[in-house]
Design brief:
alpha+beta; Tumor Necrosis Factor Receptor, subunit A, domain 2; two-stranded antiparallel sheet; two-stranded antiparallel ribbon; 8 helices; 18 strands; TNFR/NGFR_Cys_rich_reg; TNFRSF_decoy_receptor; secreted; disulfide bond
Length: about 300
């Protein structure tokens, strides 16, 4: 991103009185203020301005630009230009000096979008994608789909894909194979839990990944089952972040029986597709536990026969 100079009008005015050193003479034509005769006067160098015009008896009087002002080219203007000010979501990259205006760049977390001539927040890579290249003041985040064996369960402009954890050794078995948006889920057959308790691990990422619209999300939160039979209070004023916080709090405290009801809650709230996918995940966990932990002496709670 080039310098973002904000004082457009003064620059235009200056252009009427400035000259490139390599293309035009270092003088300008004027008239002697006393005799009125034509006279050739020296221009003032960058960092100065014309304090007093020349005459047939004296040269041009150039003075240094005061603090907070500048001239970038040879000129014969009567005052220096005021230093620019960085706009919204910008910071100073190079301070203003007598012979150059300040240069601005987008502040951390933002990049310059030429199309809109403004700084925009770096894009966050959604669950299932990781950061291939972090955003800079000039470029947006570059995302990539997580490859086999890796995942990302968050929406982030900083995190890359992470390898799935291993379920081998220490008596662990794979309860649910990881995907691009959630980790492997492991189970210990010697300390077996209800399949819904293993599903619990991926539920926060499930709701982020499926990006359910806020109206349905509110209905889901309202319909969440609880041990006392009461539903969540009114949540019409809650934003998406607050709704996810309520969901995560419920997920952490819900019983296995309540979690098993969650697919039907999603369906009844109008998110039937998400409900069906969650139900398939739960059935996969139950089936995997039944296969991997068959023959164990412990009771397999709620795992279908």
């Amino acid at each position: 991103m080039t310098a973002m100079t904000l004082s457009v009008l003064p620059v235009v005015l200056l252009s009427l009185h400035v000259v490139r050193v390599d293309s035009v003479a270092m003088t300008f034509e004027s008239r002697d203020p006393i005799t009125g005769s034509p006279v050739s006067c020296d221009r003032c160098p960058p960092g100065t301005y014309l304090r007093s015009q020349c005459s047939s008896e004296r040269k041009s009087d150039c003075a240094n630009c005061p603090h907070g002002s500048f001239t970038e080219v040879w000129n014969h203007i009567g005052r220096c230009l005021r230093c620019g000010v960085c706009s919204h979501n910008q910071v100073v990259k190079t301070p203003c000096t007598a012979d150059s205006d300040c240069q601005c760049q987008c502040k951390p977390g933002y990049y310059y979008k030429t199309q809109y001539d403004m700084c925009l927040p770096h894009s966050a890579c959604p669950p299932g994608q990781g950061v291939r290249a972090k955003g800079t003041p000039d470029e947006d985040t570059v995302c990539q789909t997580c490859s086999d064996g890796t995942f990302s369960e968050v929406s982030s402009a900083h995190h890359n894909c992470t390898e799935h954890k291993s379920c081998s050794g220490a008596g662990l078995q794979l309860a649910l194979r990881g995907s691009s948006w959630h980790n492997n889920v492991c189970a210990n057959c010697a300390d077996l839990k209800d399949g819904a308790d293993y599903l619990r691990e991926i539920l926060p990422a499930f709701f982020v990944h499926h990006n359910i619209n806020i109206k349905r999300l509110r209905r889901i939160v309202h319909k969440l089952p609880s041990q006392d039979g009461k539903r969540q209070g009114r949540n019409t004023e809650l934003n998406s972040s607050e709704l996810h916080q309520r969901l995560n709090a419920w997920i952490a405290s819900a019983t296995a029986e309540e979690i098993r009801k969650l697919p039907s809650v999603l369906t009844n709230a109008g998110a039937s597709g998400a409900g069906e996918r969650l139900d398939q995940k739960l059935k996969r966990v139950d089936s995997q536990l039944k296969t991997e932990c068959r023959g164990n002496e412990v009771e397999m709670v709620n795992v279908p026969k």
